[in-house]
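3.2 Worked example (two chains)
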Amino acid sequence: MTGEARPPGAGPEAVAGRRLRGYAEIAASSLILGTSSTLIQISTMPASLLLVLRMALGGLALGAVFLLTHGLEEVRRSGCVRRMVVLGFVVALETMLFFAAIRGAGVTVAVSLEYMAPVWVALLAPWALRTRRRASDMAAVAVAAGGMALLVLPVATAGEGAVTLPGMAAGLLAGLLFAAAMMLVSSMRDAGVRGSTLALFYCAATVILFTPLAVWQAAAGGYRFTWTDAWIVAVQGLVYTGLCLSLYTDGLRFIRVEHAGILGYLEPVTAPLWALLFIGEAPPWTTYAGGAVIVGAGIFVIVFGAREARAPTRSLT
């Protein structure tokens, strides 16, 4: 879980190349995903319908790749089919909660709460994956709690309707599920499953789970499809789902999950800038400060956790 995958017989140069690939994939996908939240705000489509159409379109593209590259054999050979199915439904629920958080709490708060996931990984990994608990993990949780306070307290005292308690709760739960997904992917790093294959499981689970809700919400709300929503679905499905989810998931196979988490912070760091540019959402300074503190908590996990990990065993980084 905490170390990078090292294939049998792989030399230092090969391991370094895999590591560089993982860093590049996660950094690139996170930078692109920074614009995703703003598009969700622009869309007038019910969140469940946007999610289902996004995943259906992404799934069609990924499904073609899967069939053309002998994906069935890859899945059978991995021996991880059950975990892939569980992972698919975890990501489906996480994405739906994230959409709900954006609608109920705004881009900046929703993204910041979801990206507490690396801190939850540090807290839950010893229990879920039977790894050693580190003192730095608990310190990081305390630091992140301070960041959450900066996000939540101004909202609670201002009495404004733009950010709701259910929206913030959805963001927090999305972060927990994001952490669970990261740990599940990391547990399968030696199974030889590509990121695009795992992303296909995300798409299938989402379509199965949320299509009834999407149909009901669209019909009950009298929603009418627009050209703006059409291009948003296209970008969300082909770019954010087909490309970015595949890159991010694939990158998790090659680097420490803590490092993946901190690189993933490129998304919440840039998301408020895109929100300000495209939809004029200008959060108070406390929101930026809270986001910075949460990012600091993730950095704390990596820097001090790596020092503790090197003491009793050989370095894996």
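3.2.1 Second chain
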Amino acid sequence: MKKQIYLLFFVVFLSGVSNATMLVHYTFDEATGATTVADTAGSYNGTLGSYQSGTNTGLYATGLAGKYGNAAGFYSSNGSSAGGWTLADATPLLSSSFTVSFWINTERWLNSAWFTYVNQASGLKMIVYSETTGTGATGLSAKIGDYSSTDSITVVNRLALGTTGTSNEWLHVAAVVTNLSDLTLYVDGVSYASSTSTAGYGFGTAGMDGLKLGGRFGANGTNNKYVNGLMDDFAIIDSALNAEQILAIYNSSIPIPEPITFILLSAGLGIVRIGRKK
């Protein structure tokens, strides 16, 4: 019953988003030994990969204990020349407003790219990463940019450290882009306003394209900013969710429901309303 209540609540809060569509959803519920991850929302399945360099080790793992069910693990001994990742088999085309939502669990905050998106067709680049300051503070940052100087994205928005990162605990991360000009980062349901700073490290090697989790783009052996930790329930929603909706995701005891669940539950709610009117 509790799960049904949460599902109904999700339908109510997402129904308030005009034309909201879940473009990508990785639940990471694959069993141990999987080499691919399923996109339960659409057609952007991911392929798991890893690279090792000399004595530096990099790997991925599936079937690990997650925030909800299983999770994927991406591991790197040095964060630079070796690591593990998920790379989408095709690049989703995002609109001018969208939301990225996922959970992470890590103990290493030094320059780690959790989400990297580069699309030459749309001209959009985006990265969400963890970092440390010169004083040792830890936290998360997000950045959007223009793929080429001829495109419409004229401002690079970067969010500085949003909150002090807590190690070895699940944290919810959401980045909301509105009209390709405003960027808001949420950590555990708390928002941090956007800025126009161009600081922070880049998106990766020029000419590379796609959706990557666990590192940024680059040839193996270069500084790819690999993460070291767990990721669960990754989603891209084709709408800029508001603070209340982000908080609802953070507070939920279940993962974001699949689109078919929205449809069926919405239909059920409609039938209930009709029945009550008779």
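3.3 Remarks
The chain is about 15% helix and 35% strand.
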